[in-house]
Write a structure and sequence with these properties.
about 200 residues, about 15% strand
Length: about 200
């Protein structure tokens, strides 16, 4: 049975909320680069089909839907926390911080938040964490697409600065090839030094 991706939004509209933002992040697992979050407010008459969890989409389909979301969304906010801050406060706190940043960057501001995962974020707005929200809420699914495409494009830009690491291919995730390059060259400035996949490979970290 197909999931009704509008069910959480419909219930929120019924409670009297009108600007409902879905929030998701990309980049908790990589060894390098930032964690990126997106907050998306969709109109009730959003005309685009095919929105779903970004992990289930091809890069080409993600890019197409990214453009459609930007065309029709009421508002989109982005939050980015870099590797230095991830090392300082840990990846979970960095992800939650980037989510809060993305909400703060929405114009207009939402009146209700649907958040992927089990944790609330630092915000005075009413909010609802939803486990597997990117598969259950269209607003969160749209945010997952925007966050993923935004982060992938950032990593492609970092590839220009650090071509030996292959960031355009693996986007900083812990592939065998990525680990071998860290072992050969040591980490670069965007690597997360606090991550096990980085520090055990180089004794001088």
């Amino acid at each position: 049975m197909a999931t009704n991706l509008w069910s959480f939004e419909t219930k929120s509209f019924a409670k009297g909320f009108s600007k409902i933002a879905g929030i998701d992040e990309a980049g908790r697992g990589p060894l390098a680069g930032p964690v990126v979050s997106a907050a998306v407010i969709l109109p009730a008459a959003f005309p685009v089909s095919g929105i779903c969890d970004s992990k289930k989409l091809t890069p080409k389909k993600r890019s197409y839907l990214y453009e459609m979301i930007y065309e029709y969304a009421i508002s989109i906010g982005i939050g980015i926390v870099d590797s230095t801050e991830i090392d300082r406060i840990n990846i979970l706190q960095a992800a939650l911080f980037s989510m809060a940043m993305s909400v703060n960057n929405l114009k207009p501001q939402p009146d209700y938040l649907l958040i992927d995962g089990q944790f609330r974020i630092s915000s005075n707005l009413p909010q609802e964490p939803i486990i597997r929200g990117d598969s259950l809420s269209i607003s969160i699914a749209a945010a997952s697409i925007v966050a993923k495409v935004t982060r992938d494009r950032l990593m492609e830009r970092y590839h220009i600065d650090y071509p030996e690491f292959g960031f355009a291919r693996h986007k900083g995730y812990p592939t065998r090839a990525h680990k071998e390059v860290i072992r050969d060259f040591g980490p670069c400035p965007i690597h997360r030094r606090s991550f096990k996949g980085v520090t055990p490979l180089v004794s001088f970290c």
